[in-house]
Amino acid sequence: MNYPARMNLSARVSSLKASSTVAVMNKAKALKAAGADVLNFSAGEPDFDTPEPAKRAAINAINANLTRYIDTPGDPATRELLARHISTTSNIPGVTKDHVLVTAGVKMALYLTYQTLFDLQPPGQEQEMLLPVPAWVSFSPMARLAGAKVVELPTGPEQDFKITPAQLKSAITPRTRALMLNTPSNPCSTMYSQAELEALAAVVAEAASTIAPEMVVISDELYQNIVFGSVPHFSIGSVPSIAERTITVNGPGKSFAMTGWRLGWVSGSGEFGKQLVAGLSKLQGQSITCVPGFSLAALRSALTECDAELEAMRTAFAARAEVIYAELRKLPGIKLARPVGAFYVFPDISAHLGTHSAKGAKINSAADFASALLDEQQMAVVPGEDFSSLLGHKHIRISFACSLEQIREGCRRLGAFIAGLNRA
Ligand code: PMP
């Protein structure tokens, strides 16, 4: 007998939202493949190639037959290198190889972390994850899948998209299990300063000694190396009072142009970090077993032999940030924060809601705006809805991981689109 026509997927998966960034990226690629002159500003990945030394290292490792399973958390040499790297570049104390787990991308690092932290609880009693928004689209669905209730802390361009200590303090409850931070931020490209993070850390330390003893901080620092100078990167896990309750995730994908290698890592400090990594490792062992050993040769090379390539890419992103910020600021009804790290801008387009496009499409949300922009100007951007249920409909995300030429042409097309909007 055939399987019933309608397959019953698990409730967990049926209720899971598909990634909107991946959806726009795929639509833009399909239009382009069909011959349309589409400018793609949706991709969250560098347009550069992986540095040659990293590629060679992986090819050599394959030729040396490093093609078998490796230790579940990653081979000891790579974890030792990562522990040194984390200690020196992020100043996080108490990190040895036993405090580090190598994962298949930062996405998997977060997935394993959420599954390891949150317990499934009856409705109304869920553990809470505080999430400053706008935030990257996958934090919330992945945490909810693990059983968390996600509590959004709203921010806007006027406060540089950053939460304040008072805002954090008033959001913490006895059910708070985690604060999720991401600096530099996708989609906002703003960064917390050392002083700002120390002030947030003080609030966490105080709450941990009173109402939320099991509260942790999860810090996604994937864009740590893509910073443009005005705000130095700072790791909140380096603050001694909360080092042993901070989980830091990072990876080579964005800064070394290695998105397709699917590499990332999780680390923690002291006894807390050791127990965390043991838990994560158990879960990795029951899911993917380990990451491919030959790809770790590329990771070691990236971290030790590719400084010049890293700097060249960082400089290119910095120049692009200046151009896109200057060009977008000239457009009417666009409010945005200056990008100081990562490679996105997240303009507030709410001045243009309630209009019609040149071809008559109703523009009542960011999704309408992005859809008409793609249809009428062949410019692909990600609508903001999935970056925040509270504020997303007022924003679009534009990735500037593309050439200066494309950035200038994109800003021209966006300007033409806005000029064609009417309030009739
Ligand atoms: N965190 C953030 C903030 C990101 O922007 C992304 C990718 N867009 C990820 C995690 C996932 O990274 P990876 O490709 O290494 O899984």
**CATH superfamily caption of the largest domain:** Type I PLP-dependent aspartate aminotransferase-like (Major domain)
CATH T-level topology of the largest domain:
Aspartate Aminotransferase, domain 2
Summing up helix and strand content along with how strands pair, one would put the structural category as alpha/beta
Low-confidence stretches: none
Largest sheet: 7 strands, mixed
Assigned CATH class of the largest domain = Alpha Beta
N/C terminus separation: 58 Å
- The ordered H/E elements are HHEHHEHEHEHEHEHEEHHHEEEHEEEH
- Biggest sheet strand order reads 2-8-7-6-5-3-4
How many beta-strand runs?
A: 14
Please indicate the count of domains.
Answer: 2
Instruction: Using the alpha-carbon principal axes, give the shape.
Output: globular
Any overview of this molecule?
With 424 residues, the chain is of the alpha/beta class. The chain has 2 domains: 11-49 and 308-419, Aspartate Aminotransferase, domain 1 (Alpha-Beta Complex); 52-305, Aspartate Aminotransferase, domain 2 (3-Layer(aba) Sandwich). The protein contains 14 helices and 14 strands. The chain has helices at 11-14, 20-33, 52-63, 76-90, 105-117, 139-145, 165-171, 194-208, 240-243, 270-285, 293-305, 307-329, 366-377, 404-419, and strands at residues 39-40, 100-103, 128-133, 149-154, 176-182, 216-220, 246-250, 264-268, 344-345, 355-356, 362-363, 379-380, 382-383, 396-399. Helix 3 (52-63) runs antiparallel to helix 11 (293-305) and helix 5 (105-117) packs across helix 10 (270-285). The model has no long low-confidence stretch (mean pLDDT 95). 4'-deoxy-4'-aminopyridoxal-5'-phosphate (PMP) binds next to helix 5. The site of 4'-deoxy-4'-aminopyridoxal-5'-phosphate (PMP) has 13 residues, from helix 5.
